[in-house]
Specification:
Shape: flat
Largest sheet: 3 strands, antiparallel
Number of helices: 0
Strand order of the largest sheet: 1-2-3
Oligomer: single chain
Structural class: mainly beta
Radius of gyration: 13 Å
Low-confidence stretches: none
């Protein structure tokens, strides 16, 4: 498949505007042919500041931090 994938990240908390300690497991895929974003399978563990890559058609998210900072 073609497209752009966004994996995890952090959500904004209005009560703590300077804190990014709210990792998410949500993932999306953008289809440029349809100009459309779709929600896809979530990460098993919410994570932020991670890297991601594709190997044999499978997306792997590695490293980063969970909500404990690990």
């Amino acid at each position: 498949e073609t497209g752009i994938m966004v994996t995890g990240g952090a959500t904004y908390n209005q009560e703590k505007p300077h804190s990014l300690a709210n990792p998410t497991s949500t993932c999306f895929r953008y289809d440029p042919d349809k100009d459309h974003w779709s929600r896809i399978s979530s990460l098993q563990t919410p994570r932020m500041y991670h890297g991601a890559g594709v190997l044999s058609g499978v997306v792997y998210a590695v490293g980063g931090h969970d909500y404990t900072g690990r």
